[in-house]
Amino acid sequence: MASSMRSLFSDHNRYVESFRRFLNSSTEHQCMQEFMDKKLPGIIARIGDRKSEIKILSIGGGAELVAKTSNLENIKFAWHKETSSEYQNRIIEKKEFQKWDFIHMIQMLYYVKDIPATLKFFHTLLATNAKMLIILVSGVSGWDKLWKKYGSRLPQDDLCQYVTSSDLTQMLDKLGIKYECYDLLSTMDISDCFIDGNENGELLCDFLTETCNFNTTAPPDLKAEIMKDLQESEFSVKKEGKVLFNNSLSFIVVET
Fold first, then answer.
1. How far apart (Å, rounded) are the C-alpha atoms in residues 8 and 30?
2. What is the DSSP letter of 173?
């Protein structure tokens, strides 16, 4: 790895902008919405049986959308700006083991250092008939291939680790935790990545490789290999003149 390559997370502003470009170029949110609309209601139907209130724990969800949502007069929120590890330590220290009817972890397990311990802990907080929803990239996505093939040659950061649904289901199996896994197709238009000097493409390349200024700092051989692979069928599909990276998501529903 060239010494000039550095993690995208080392430049907060560039990371935020590259993430914004990713959202604009992908069907990530549409994919999540499809699951919420079509699959989730049936999955969580029994959670509220004979209960006057439903307790939901959102990890990594943030408060922004709630602030913009109407008709929430009868819903109470308590916000804690802390990592899942900090929350876990606080709960253990204060012995406040509250049970939850629904826990969701959306695209956040990449930022947890000890994933099996985190899964085990939050599973103990599920009430009777409760569910835990975990969303992360699928083991059949292009991310899985990209990380496995090139992860060791890209700058890694303590803030983030490469993990897909394939890794997660193996962890759950070892823990003896029951779950169901649903995969939904999502794509990311990376066509601009193959246009020299295209700002959107350069930011998308940064996001894909988690490397700050990948196009100008990566060794030429590494850049050539990755750019070639990104156009291969195991990573992307070509449709109507566009290169669509496989951004498929897995929705893992954990049982009590």
1. 25
2. H
26-68 pLDDT, tens digit each = 999 999 999 999 999 988 888 877 778 888 888 876 656 455 4
Q: Which two tokens stand for residue 1?
A: 């790895």
Q: Choose the weakest-confidence range: 63-72, 152-161, 181-190, 228-237.
A: 63-72
| Total of domains in the chain | 1
| CATH code at position 41 | 3.40.50.150
Query: Which of 76 and 251 is assigned the larger pLDDT?
Result: 251
Say what the pLDDT of residue 1 is.
Answer: 42
Residue 52 belongs to domain spanning: 4-253
- CA pair distance 128, 140, nearest whole angstrom: 32
The number of C-alpha atoms within 13 Å of 187 and in the hemisphere containing its C-beta is 15
Contact predicate 224/23, CB 8 Å: no
Ramachandran class of 123: left when φ > 0, alpha when ψ lies in -120 to 50, beta otherwise: alpha
- One-letter amino acid of 229: D
Which H/E stretch holds residue 82? none
Element (H, E) at 101: strand 100-106
Residue appearing with tokens 């599973």: 123
Would you say 247 is a known binding-site residue? yes
Instruction: Note whether 135 and 32 are within 8 A (CB).
Output: yes
As a whole number, the mean pLDDT across the chain is: 89
